[in-house]
Design brief:
heterodimer; A: 206 residues; alpha/beta; Rossmann fold; three-stranded mixed sheet; 27% helix; B: 254 residues; TIM Barrel; eight-stranded parallel barrel; two-stranded antiparallel sheet; globular
Chain lengths: 206, 254
């Protein structure tokens, strides 16, 4: 069973639609600890502000259980967009600490003075340069492109965690993986065949 | 590099797809789900759906058809039409639609845009403006499906909406709608110069070079297309289509 952690932030409908499309046997969105406990895979979605996300996640009372599932039971987990940012340690966007599952922090896009500033949020389709195939980019189509909407991005303190980078003013980390913990800054559920392939890879990982 | 978004803008009326000319004479195009399947195959960047009669018929958004639409769309979707309270936004988003466009109600209750953006984030809230050219080169916003003049200048209104938290502006020219005569570049330029948020050019595109003009000359961040992607040829035979990606990328220098 794949469980999408429902903490009131993020587009659960489109993730469920995509999981169905790629033939995931069973998937549900839930905030019930029993469902999370039984999950053999987890998805941490998220759209919105960092502190609101952490606050709502705290309110579900699930953080302890999630830590156990992810750090000890090593349940394969996919963070998406804000879900990727929350798994770092801190963010410039908020005061609250992140989940700290990986050694990374979240910063706002900052562009060199002198050049005309790019628009924030970074919104639309952008290419993804695969640095390491990991689980998510196995047999990925050539010239992969994905849909992004975000103003902040993760900076990884462990270069070996980086799966892909993307150019927006400069190269930033667009996907990471550390063992069972995976995350993308982009929205694979809204990225056509590229996203379908990525979800399929996640669904099929043992 | 970030690609310029080119998106079909599809009109819904009584659950079917239609296409208007200057906001009039909605002609039947077909079933929205069939169209989406073709746009999925063509890997279009994004889709906009507007229910053109929800506001004038005092209806909420057509949730049932939107739920079918959302379950078929593997690209971002914006919905507009009859969005007049936070509950409607909540329901639309929960179906799996990313963005909500607010048009008439943004004029009638400007504070609503601020409330919506505070609650759901700016990148979820699109303000849509239907604009008509007046004598002597002035422009005016029209609401309720182009039926009622709002007495507002599009540039001033766009600036105000950006301050309220709108994350994008969908800028539609009523005069060019369905004509395929090209975008109103002057209108687009006047708005893009005044705001920092992305502006989606809409109304009038007839050939792919028009996209380039809207982006390079008009400063648009994205382009919407109607007739061009639902009709084919001079006689406007219904054919769901979309320009080749390679052609678009080379045209736009991407």
């Amino acid at each position: 069973m794949i469980v999408i952690v429902d903490y009131g932030m993020g587009n659960l409908g489109s993730i469920l639609n995509m999981l169905k499309k790629v033939g995931a046997p069973e998937a549900m969105a839930s905030s019930n600890p029993r469902d999370i406990e039984c999950a053999d895979k987890l998805i941490l979605p998220g759209v919105g502000a960092f502190d609101t996300g952490m606050q709502k996640l705290r309110e579900t009372g699930l953080i302890g259980l999630l830590n156990e599932k992810i750090l000890q039971a090593k349940t394969p987990t996919l963070g998406i967009c804000l879900g990727m940012q929350l798994i770092g340690k801190i963010s410039e966007e908020g005061e609250l600490p992140g989940l700290g599952w990986i050694d990374a922090e979240c910063v706002r896009f900052r562009f060199d003075a002198g050049k005309p500033p790019l628009k924030i949020p970074h919104m639309g389709w952008n290419t993804v340069k695969i640095q390491r195939q990991g689980t998510l980019f196995k047999d990925m189509y050539a010239e992969p492109r994905f849909y992004f909407v975000h103003s902040y991005h993760l900076v990884s303190h462990n270069p070996e965690d980086i799966l892909s980078t993307t150019d927006y003013g400069y190269e930033f980390v667009s996907a990471i993986q550390r063992e069972n913990i995976m995350a993308t800054q982009f929205h694979p559920e809204k990225s056509h065949k590229f996203g379908m392939k990525l979800y399929k890879n996640f669904v099929e990982v043992a | 590099m970030l690609k310029t978004r080119i998106m079909p803008c599809l009109l819904l009326k009584d659950g079917a797809l239609v296409k208007t000319v200057k906001f009039k004479n909605p002609g039947y195009i077909g079933d929205p789900i069939n169209a989406i399947r073709i746009y999925n195959e063509k890997e279009v960047d994004e889709l906009i759906f507007l229910d053109i009669t929800a506001t004038i018929e005092n209806r909420p958004p057509p949730y049932k058809i939107l739920s079918e639409i959302a379950s078929e769309c593997f690209m971002p979707v914006t919905y507009g039409g009859g969005v007049r309270d936070v509950e409607a936004i909540h329901q639309v988003l929960s179906l799996g639609i990313e963005k909500v466009a607010i048009n008439s109600y943004a004029v009638e209750n400007q504070d609503f845009v601020r409330v919506a953006a505070d609650k759901y984030g700016s990148s979820t809230i699109v303000v849509s403006m239907d604009v008509r050219r007046k004598p002597f080169g002035k422009y005016e916003i029209f609401i309720r499906g182009g039926r009622k003049g709002a007495g507002l200048d599009p540039v001033e209104f766009a600036v105000k909406m950006e301050k309220m938290g709108a994350g994008e502006i969908l800028l539609n020219s009523i005069d060019r709608d369905g004509t395929q005569e090209g975008y109103d570049i002057e209108l687009i330029r006047s708005v893009t110069r005044a705001v920092g948020v992305p502006v989606i050019a809409c109304g009038g595109v007839g050939k792919i070079e028009d996209f380039r003009d809207a982006v390079k000359d008009g400063g648009a961040s994205a382009c919407a297309a109607g007739s061009m992607v639902v009709y084919f040829g001079r006689n406007r035979a219904v054919l769901i289509n979309f320009p080749e990606r390679k052609k678009l990328e080379s045209l736009l220098g991407e």
